């Protein structure tokens, strides 16, 4: 008996069928207790293990004892196509969904929304909450000629995830890389390049060569103070826009970006805009200084300009050097204003290490003091440190070393099982993808702010909740179609009877997890944490693996049952792949 459900604002059963189940629960509760449908709805939470949904009665602050309230709901309760049962447990009401509807409706929805959207993610799980809004997400942002350290790697990984996440929620996303391509160190490199530079080396690997030059000239500068003076003069000429001082620098920048782009591609990370500190105009940097001066916050120390933010417990900071050249902080202020002028963003996110908390707080505060109404839409997404990052060859300074090491360690490990190794079609590609997945999962498995220690062995093991395990889980489920070709293609869902799945607890559990995926994305947007998505991917992998022995496809004689199971696994594979793609991981088909 189908009953139509009332609609609750900000829910969308057509993309998240759990919204409908929650509405069905809320409807009963609002009919039994003096609550509006919306109030009741807001109290419907996921249950603990073994319970579908739970309501904590005290949260409604209703008059009367909890037991009486619970009895009111229970005495009126009759099972229907949505909700099967309710039990009272202390302050809680636990609801179980009708298993047949759960399986049917979830699988139908996953299937109906399985096509890929332009962002490369399937529609299932996505929502349109950000429709019409623009977000700039700035991430990676390495410094040309300095090392690409793990801090940049974290920014790259977390930023790529956030960009996918915002897109999944309907935002128009501008993925921006803000290169450290300006500053006194370029005066230093220019000085050093005259002595140590080689055009040939530069073309071979610009990032490495510039780093080498930088290290050499830095060392020399330690013994010879004239070098720093030279360098500062050179940078001043650059800031003044003197063409002769800029030609080389321009080539360095271009070659470095080219090299980075290759590596980002390997990581499945993409940018819409390569911005950089060098591109920030002077105009707004000057205006910012003038405005802060008016407010009496600027002092002159030996010709340098200092802003005093003590009032907000943000210390003092130099805004302009004695020779008039800009610094990191001023460029960030000018840069934010220019980005607003250009993109009129609704939100701008900076994915930068927590080591720069003070820096970001300072320039956010300055923009607020300048009374830009959009200053409140800036957000710093920070993250903790990574310890112990070294490869078999020593300390890591370049991104390509990290990629090579991950691929190499994985390659060696795969080789140990000769039989399996020989069966892999493209072991180089496979080991690289698994290695990168290991690095990414290790990075996103815990809350961003936590520090962690880089551990090649652990992250590249197939045991435990690791990247390789996740790829393995996907490969295994992807193989099910290859192993049962006679079942494919499946008939349209309306011709598949899923009733047999409802009574199999492992199948039901998979369906429940699939149903929760749109909520996983919504929660991730709220917390801006990748860890919830990682947890989801592992829970789904575990549920699939537990189902393996009982929800059998191969060898099931009853064709109707075999098809239903195949349908379940195909849906599970789609959602597992979607969650991996959201984390910027490319799911493998074979390994
Ligand atoms: N290039 C900087 C660094 O490596 C990170 C830039 C962060 N973004 C910003 N807008 N300040 O430390």
TrEMBL record:
One of its GO terms (cellular component) is mitochondrion. SUPFAM superfamilies: Anticodon-binding domain of a subclass of class I aminoacyl-tRNA synthetases, Arginyl-tRNA synthetase (ArgRS), N-terminal 'additional' domain, Nucleotidylyl transferase. Keywords: Aminoacyl-tRNA synthetase, ATP-binding, Ligase, Nucleotide-binding, Protein biosynthesis. One of its GO terms (molecular function) is ATP binding. Residues 470-591 form the DALR anticodon binding domain. PROSITE patterns: AA_TRNA_LIGASE_I. The keyword Repeat does not apply. The keyword Protein biosynthesis applies. InterPro entries: aa-tRNA-synth_I_CS (IPR001412), Arg-tRNA-ligase (IPR001278), Arg-tRNA-synth_N_sf (IPR036695), ArgRS_core (IPR035684), DALR_anticod-bd (IPR008909), Rossmann-like_a/b/a_fold (IPR014729), tRNAsynth_Ia_anticodon-bd (IPR009080). GO terms for biological process: arginyl-tRNA aminoacylation; mitochondrial translation. Its EC number is 6.1.1.19. It catalyses: tRNA(Arg) + L-arginine + ATP = L-arginyl-tRNA(Arg) + AMP + diphosphate. It comes from the Eukaryota. Signal peptide: none annotated. Pfam families: DALR_1, tRNA-synt_1d. Belongs to the class-I aminoacyl-tRNA synthetase family. This is arginine--tRNA ligase. It comes from Hypsizygus marmoreus. The gene is YDR341C_2.
């Amino acid at each position: 008996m189908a009953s139509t459900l009332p609609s609750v604002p900000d829910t969308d059963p057509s993309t998240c069928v759990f919204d409908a189940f929650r509405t069905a629960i809320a409807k009963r509760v609002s009919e039994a207790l003096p609550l509006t449908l919306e109030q009741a709805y807001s109290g419907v939470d996921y249950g603990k293990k073994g319970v579908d949904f739970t309501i904590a009665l005290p949260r409604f602050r209703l008059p009367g004892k909890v037991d009486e309230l619970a009895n009111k709901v229970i005495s009126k309760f009759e099972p229907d196509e949505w909700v099967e049962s309710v039990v009272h447990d202390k302050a809680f009401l636990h609801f179980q969904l009708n298993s047949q509807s759960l399986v049917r409706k979830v699988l139908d929805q996953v299937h109906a929304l399985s096509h890929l959207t332009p962002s490369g993610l399937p529609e299932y799980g996505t929502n349109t909450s950000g429709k019409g809004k623009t977000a700039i997400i700035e991430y990676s942002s390495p410094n040309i000629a300095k090392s690409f350290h793990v801090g940049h790697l974290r920014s790259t990984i977390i930023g790529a995830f956030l960009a996918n996440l915002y897109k999944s929620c309907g935002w128009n996303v501008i993925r921006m890389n803000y290169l450290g391509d300006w500053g006194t160190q370029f005066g230093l490199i220019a000085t050093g390049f005259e002595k140590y530079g080689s055009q040939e080396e530069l073309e071979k690997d610009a990032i490495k060569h510039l780093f080498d030059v930088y290290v050499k000239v830095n060392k020399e500068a330690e013994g010879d103070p004239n070098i720093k003076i030279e360098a500062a003069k050179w940078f001043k000429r650059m800031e003044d826009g003197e063409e002769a001082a800029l030609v080389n620098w321009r080539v360095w920048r271009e070659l470095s970006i080219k090299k980075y782009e290759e590596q980002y591609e390997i990581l499945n990370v993409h940018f819409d805009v390569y911005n950089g500190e060098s591109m920030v105009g002077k105009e707004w940097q000057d205006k910012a200084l003038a405005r802060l001066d008016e407010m009496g916050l600027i002092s002159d120390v030996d010709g340098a300009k200092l802003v005093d933010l003590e009032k907000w417990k943000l210390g003092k900071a130099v805004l302009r050097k004695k020779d008039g050249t800009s610094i990191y902080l001023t460029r960030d202020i000018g840069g934010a204003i220019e980005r607003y002028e250009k993109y009129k963003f609704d939100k701008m996110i900076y994915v930068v290490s927590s080591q720069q908390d003070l820096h970001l707080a300072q320039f956010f505060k300055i923009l607020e003091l300048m009374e830009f109404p959009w200053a409140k839409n800036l957000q710093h997404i920070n993250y903790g440190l990574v310890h112990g990052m070294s490869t078999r060859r020593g300390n890591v300074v370049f991104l390509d070393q990290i990629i090579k090491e991950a691929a190499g360690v994985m390659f060696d490990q795969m080789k140990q099982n000769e039989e399996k190794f020989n069966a892999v079609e493209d072991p180089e590609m496979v080991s690289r993808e698994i290695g990168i997945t290991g690095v990414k999962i290790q990075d996103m498995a815990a809350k961003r702010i936590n520090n962690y220690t880089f551990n090649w062995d652990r992250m590249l093991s197939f045991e435990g909740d690791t990247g390789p395990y996740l790829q393995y889980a996907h490969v295994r489920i992807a193989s099910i179609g290859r192993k049962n070709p006679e079942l494919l293609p499946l008939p349209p869902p309306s011709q598949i009877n899923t009733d047999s799945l409802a009574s199999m607890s492992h199948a039901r559990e998979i369906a429940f997890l699939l149903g929760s995926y749109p909520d996983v994305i919504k929660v991730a947007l709220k917390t801006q944490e990748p860890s919830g998505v990682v947890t989801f991917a592992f829970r789904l992998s575990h549920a699939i693996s537990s189902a393996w022995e009982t929800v059998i496809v191969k060898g099931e004689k009853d064709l109707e049952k075999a098809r239903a199971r195949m349908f379940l696994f195909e849906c599970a594979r789609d959602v597992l792949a979607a969650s991996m793609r959201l984390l910027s991981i490319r799911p493998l088909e074979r390994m």
